[in-house]
Amino acid sequence: MTAFASKATFSAAVPFAAIVAETPSHVAAREALLDAAMGPGRTRKSSEAIRTGRLPAEGLAFSALAPDGTLVGTVRLWNIAAGTRNGGSVEALLLGPLAIAPDRQGTGLGGLMMRHAIAEAARLGHGAIVLVGDPDYYVRFGFSAAQTGALAMPGPFEPHRLLALELSALALDAVAGLITATGRFALDTVASPPVVAKAA
């Protein structure tokens, strides 16, 4: 199993308070941030078919807040079956979307949020994280397409952008098939209480 640290270098030029567990009060600001950072096409992505109507994985939805309480970053992880192995589904997480407010991009906040999310997923005992994204960006966090060649997303996707990170050895060994949602439906439960992670 790989060890992960939740701290990362962060530019002191941009005020930043903390990464906290997402709460219902963040929803409107999160949706506005996603629209600003990713544009209207974000809802047509194949990952959205997995997230729609579901709750994020327990304890794995995070908001970055500026000192005045403004939401400036968001990242969430979702319970999935990463295909099958020997006839049984393989539990994993789907990461996304990761979004940073336009005026905070390039400051290191995205990296800080990624490392925090990975560390928390490992701490909670998850075996692997899958995402669809830019390989040049996510390779720094250990993601690659080495274990995803036989996996598929629902709907159109670019295979070279389907990446994974194993948090425990061989978690995705010999997996194949369609990635499907396994998480709780949105009406099943309420959000978890906040957990704060201070920036370095």
Automatic annotation (TrEMBL):
Pfam families documented for this protein: Acetyltransf_1
Gene Ontology MF, one: acyltransferase activity, transferring groups other than amino-acyl groups
CDD domains: NAT_SF
Residues of the N-acetyltransferase domain: 17-168
Gene3D superfamilies membership: 3.40.630.30
Transmembrane intervals: none
InterPro entries per the UniProt record, alphabetical: Acyl_CoA_acyltransferase, GNAT_dom
Stated name of the protein: N-acetyltransferase
Organism (species): Jiella flava
